Automatic annotation (TrEMBL):
Gene Ontology BP, a term: cholesterol catabolic process
GO molecular function: cholest-4-en-3-one 26-monooxygenase activity; heme binding; iron ion binding; steroid hydroxylase activity
Annotated protein name in UniProt: Cytochrome P450
Protein family: Belongs to the cytochrome P450 family.
Origin organism lineage: Bacteria, Pseudomonadati, Pseudomonadota, Alphaproteobacteria, Caulobacterales
Chain's role: Cytochromes P450 are a group of heme-thiolate monooxygenases. They oxidize a variety of structurally unrelated compounds, including steroids, fatty acids, and xenobiotics.
PROSITE patterns (UniProt xref): CYTOCHROME_P450
InterPro entries tied to this protein: Cyt_P450, Cyt_P450_B, Cyt_P450_CS, Cyt_P450_sf
Entry-linked Pfam families: p450
Keyword entries, A-Z: Heme, Iron, Metal-binding, Monooxygenase, Oxidoreductase
Keyword Ribonucleoprotein: no
Organism of derivation: Phenylobacterium parvum
Signal peptide: none
Length: 402
């Protein structure tokens, strides 16, 4: 079995399940060569992935959660780091700044608005009877929600979402420097937002971030910009890719789709969790060993890169009965699509509400959905999901938003 978890081609139709299966069975902590880099350990079993993600004392998120070591250009950020690339207690302090915005009770307060947005999104395509499901449906919801959270115009949320797609695309699959240019455009927008919210604060997350303190001081400009980048970037990944990949999976398994539609309100919670396990939108996260350690029978040396493959862990037959089967009725589904430990996804409660609202609208109103061409997947070894997925369906009527 040829193992290559770096090439975007390996992810051209979703997760490379055959590679994952071979690794879990034969070499679950696998030394993976890295052209132009120093190599890394690819971790694929559920128990090992969970242990690494929770074991921040041994496996650090610094200096980066990406496989490549930080480039020289990252010096432009100075001493500042994104929250994802911090360990406790620094990570804990920064996470507290926004944690209250993403608790389950706070997320539930947004449920009615999110449901209204879902109706609006489907209304925009329902009369046409066809659309690109990714751009016109799946990508709209997280773009709108994060825009409202930050106090941005909804259209700006859509444009910023396009930049995240560029950031996640592998460098070799686009023009040189495209990713860095997209980050700079994000920072340019964030700088204008920062000036506006300082001049005219509002009842929004951006204004509250600028007013709060960490270690007795206000956030510096670059700290705010890195927060802004994280919120825009992470705010769309799971919802957008779960909705597109999830619909694609259900179209591949029409019996499962029919089962869900037969009792959508009652069966949706279990189905949503199984789709999260099945699609696993975030492919990997890297950690760096703080000290020598043993993992899966291998000796990890201090400074080694240790990379957790969540999609492999979520198909581990040692943890999931019939792991290779899509079962929307699956009970006790302890998937780790949102990670676990101190870095568990802060936005998971809002993401679940967004997913439910969109699936209700799509599956109850877009009848007889079928793909008109195979999905084109994002050329990325970090985020898994279709970039485009053209579909047609029976045209319906708009219902309007109350």
């Amino acid at each position: 079995m040829k193992i290559d978890l770096l090439a975007p081609a390996s992810f051209a139709a979703g997760h490379p399940l055959a590679q994952y299966d071979w690794l879990r069975e034969n070499d679950p902590v696998h030394w993976h060569e890295e052209p132009g880099g120093r190599g890394f350990w690819a971790v694929t079993r559920y128990a090992d992935v969970r242990a690494v993600d929770r074991g921040f004392e041994t496996y650090s998120s610094e200096p980066t959660i990406m496989i490549p070591d930080p480039a020289e250009e990252s010096a432009a950020f100075g001493p500042y780091k994104m929250m994802l690339m911090m360990d406790p207690p620094d990570h804990t302090g920064f996470r507290k700044l926004i944690r209250s915005e993403f608790t389950l009770p706070t997320a539930k307060m947004r449920e009615a608005r999110i449901q209204a947005l879902a109706r609006q999104i489907v209304d925009a395509v329902i009369e046409k009877g066809e659309c690109d499901f990714v751009a016109e449906v799946a990508g709209e919801m997280p773009s709108y929600v994060i825009a409202e959270l930050l106090g941005l115009p909804l259209e700006d949320g859509r444009e910023l979402y396009k930049l995240t797609e560029v950031i996640h695309t592998a460098p070799e699959a686009q023009a040189p420097g495209a990713g860095a240019q997209a980050v700079m455009k994000m920072f340019e927008y964030g700088s204008k937002l920062m000036a506006e919210k300082r001049a005219r604060p509002g009842d929004d997350l951006a204004s509250r971030l600028l007013a709060c303190e960490v270690d007795g001081r206000r956030l510096e400009d670059m700290e705010f910009l890195l927060f802004f980048l994280l919120l825009i970037d992470a705010g769309g990944d799971t919802t957008r890719n779960l909705l597109a990949s999830g619909l694609n999976a259900m179209l591949d398994h029409p019996d499962q789709l029919a089962w869900l539609k037969a009792d959508l309100p009652g069966r949706l919670p279990a189905a949503r969790e199984e789709l999260l396990r099945w699609t696993t939108p975030v492919i990997y996260m890297r950690r760096t060993a703080r000290a020598d350690a043993e993992l899966g029978g291998k000796t990890i040396r201090k400074g080694d890169k240790v990379v957790m493959y969540f999609g492999a862990a979520n198909r581990d037959p040692a943890r999931f009965d019939r792991a290779a089967q899509l079962d929307l009725a699956r009970a006790q589904n302890a998937h780790i699509a949102f990670g676990n430990g101190p870095h568990v996804c802060l936005g998971q409660h809002i993401a679940r509400i967004e997913i439910d609202a969109m699936l209700v609208e799509v599956l109850s109103r877009m009848e007889e959905v079928e793909r008109t061409a195979p999905p084109e997947w994002l050329a990325s070894n970090f985020i898994s999901g279709p970039r485009t997925m053209p579909v047609r369906f029976r045209a319906g009527r708009r219902v309007g938003v109350e």
